[in-house]
Amino acid sequence: MDSRMNAWTWSLLVLLGLIWGGSFFFASIAVQHVPPLTLVFLRLLLAALALHLYIAGRFDIYSILKARWREFLILGLINNALPHALIFFGQTRIGAGLAAILNATTPIWTVLIANYFTSDEKLSSAKIAGCLVGLAGTIVLIGPGISAGGEAPLWALLLPVLAAISYGFAATYGKRFKTIPAPVTAAGQLTASSLITLPLSLLADRPWTLPLPEVDILLAILALALVSTAFAYILYFRIMAAAGATNASLVTLLVPPSAILLGVLFLGERLALGELAGMALIGFGLVILDGRAYRVLIRTA
Fold first, then answer.
1. Given CA atoms 206, 216, 230, 2 in this order, what sign does their dihedral have?
2. Which one of 65, 67, 140, 220 has the lowest number of neighbouring Cβ atoms within 10 Å?
3. How far apart are CA 102 and CA 99, in angstroms?
């Protein structure tokens, strides 16, 4: 299959970047009032229910889920339950923009993981350079936490990076679902991850003892589940099927600006100079990693 990006795939990628940027914004609102594990469960459960209603038994979904439930459990764990929990716990101490920037390292980890586990996405000199620049940006971001000179604790800075590594494994593992309709893959992983997070939420948070969230918090949870999860994953798997794991993971290049803008406008967040420098390095690394800009320059020279 042709793994190049065309204009339609790029438009889907931009839309997905805006939607997932919104997910960090909605999570920053909700996680201050709902414990992270319960928020993860609500996000995944509501999104799964929405997708099952949307599919309404089409695409032979139940036969596929029955036949491949083990694979969906693995995908749900590494693409939903684990990374969402890591990000939400991190966002109890860091803002939406910074969490999105740290999570933007996903393509770097995807390239490194895909190089080891696949035969068609090997490292090139451009990919190596992009990884090194992007990792340098990550070090700039978490450096103050290591030296205890920053406002955010080190653990809160590391959690979105660990989530990005989990997403990298998921992007590579998700290639085996290319022949399955995108809504079925999204519904399958969300159903599986809901089952994974349910007992964790019940044991850790005892959600029945929590106060009922206010209307704005409920709206943030619904937006997080229905727009930034259910609809977003349909787009994500369509992009992956059309353009490959590495190209699909480039959506994280577009997520931080969206999350930062929403955080600045509505949450009063501000990024320090060092954080902006780290974002610039990660962004530059992703551009090098992609290689398209370099090829355009060569053709026009």
1. negative
2. 67
3. 5
Nearest to 1 by CA among 179, 182, 169, 156: 179
Task: Give residue 52's Cα distance to chain centre.
Answer: 21
Give first-to-last CA distance, the chain, whole Å: 30
Closest by CA to 88, choosing from 156, 21, 147, 14, is 156
Cα 250 versus chain centre, distance: 10
Listing DSSP states for 89-112 in one string gives HHTTTS-HHHHHHHHTTHHHHHHH
- Indicate the burial class of 55 (C-beta count within 10 angstroms; 0-12, 13-18, 19 or more): middle
Q: Which residue has the tokens 């798997």?
A: 237
pTM: 0.85
Q: Which residue has the higher pLDDT, 175 or 55?
A: 55
Q: Classify residue 248 by its DSSP letter.
A: H
Grouping H, G, I as helix, E, B as strand and the rest as coil, residue 300 is helix
Backbone angles phi, psi at 6, to 5 degrees: -105, 180
User: In this structure, what DSSP letter does residue 2 have?
Assistant: -
For residue range 80-124, list pLDDT tens digits in order: 999 999 999 999 999 888 898 888 888 888 888 888 777 667 777
- At 161, the amino acid letter reads V
Q: What angle do CA 163, 200, 195 make, to 5 degrees?
A: 85
